[in-house]
Amino acid sequence: MSIEILSYLTGLLLLLWFAPPLLFLAVFLALCLVLSNWQDAAPEPALVSLLQRQVIEPAREQNGYFAWVGVMGPADQEPLAWGQRWYLEARRLDVGAGPADTAAAHPMDRELRQGTDSAAQIPCASQPGRCLELTRKDPAQARAILERGALTLARGEVALALDYYQEPRWAGMSLERFHYFRQPSQWSGLSGTRFALAVAEGRDREALAQLAREMDFYRRQLAGSVTLVSKMVALAWMERSYQFLNQYLRQAPDGARKHRALLLQMLAPLPEAAVDMRTVLETEFLMLRNGLMSLNPGRELQLPQGQLLERLHFFYLPQATVNSHFRQTQVLLALENSRGADYIHRAARLGQQHEPGLEPDWFLPRNLVGRILLQVGQPNWSSYFLRRDDLLVWRQVVALQLDMLESGLGVAEVVDQALLEGRLAHPFSGQSPDWNLKSRHLVYGARPERREGMALEIRL
Fold this sequence. Notes:
Layout lengths: L2 H34 L8 H7 L12 H6 L9 H18 L26 H4 L4 H7 L1 H10 L1 H12 L25 H14 L3 H21 L3 H24 L1 H6 L1 H7 L5 H4 L2 H16 L3 H4 L6 H8 L3 H19 L3 H11 L17 H7 L6 H27 L3 H11 L12 E3 L4 E4 L11 E4 L1
Antiparallel strand pairs: 1-2, 2-3
Helix pairs in contact: 6-9, 7-9, 9-10, 9-11, 10-11, 10-13, 11-21, 15-18, 18-19
């Protein structure tokens, strides 16, 4: 027998020997793959309870949300009425869309006015930390900006005059079909210019009273926002207001002493509902949940249509994906429900956790597409919590400035005492700021969650 024939027979015997176990293993793995994706999970009880939670809305005629929607509406239509029509049309488009459809263009968006000045053209928007200084240097420019933005300011006053602000939330809202209204992006720059010009012209009481009305509105807006976008916009405007007050206390100490009572009201602690993130977390979960339950995996992953798409459907379990996302949301809710050292500890761990809330990896191919989707496009919640906490820091530092004017003590003595008492510790990290006496800056260290990883610096 030749060597070639012997080798051939040996290979054949080895194949016959190993083929049955390999075939059995392949069949077993295929069976596991099929069975693990055969049946979706049941909704978790706590999830069902969350889905039934409702937001109480005031009458639409009293709800500043609708007037705020209409700030950039047509000049010849009342902002409250136009905002209500915009919202009803958005709901009609939502209800009329198919479960897997994306948001259709809102026809009323064509009626929106364009702003007269961009943020770059308004010093109090592009350089809010120098708003009062720049306005004092060029009051003529400030007057021209206010003249061009008079319509936007006047329409915003309609929203400020209403006692309530509640962004609507409904059970079927979905990230893919939700219509965000166009925020009046010039508002903060225009209102800051109005405040700074009044101060420059010696109308301190008028300036502070107007800013106080705006801050009251921002408090209502913070408390009544249910979507992340609306919450962050209101938070940014409130922070700008604290920046304007910070400059006022430094540049007009005599006026600040004279109007101390009003300033104390403006610097009162923010109500719990204004800084609470739980409603926003629940709404963002609800919107993503509704999208996940009607998801087309092939379209989301931008894959070609055909047989591959059908196979992807097999690897996608909607309710199991929602349950995993709900467990992620519970991690965030636990952070929001904690306080003090526990909050600091949880916040530090938030960005370090790997795939929090995902199902145990007892069999990886189960709901493989759902696992991938939950890792795509997830917001960096650490940065949103940090923005909220930066706002709280701004309030406590500016309140310290006001106390400093009345204490008769030197700035270094006041700051050293506040640091000793822990009054200036950052809520997110527990970090106390560095104090630069020469430049009179409190510096909270750079964090990756903050924009461009910058430090937070506040001048006293």
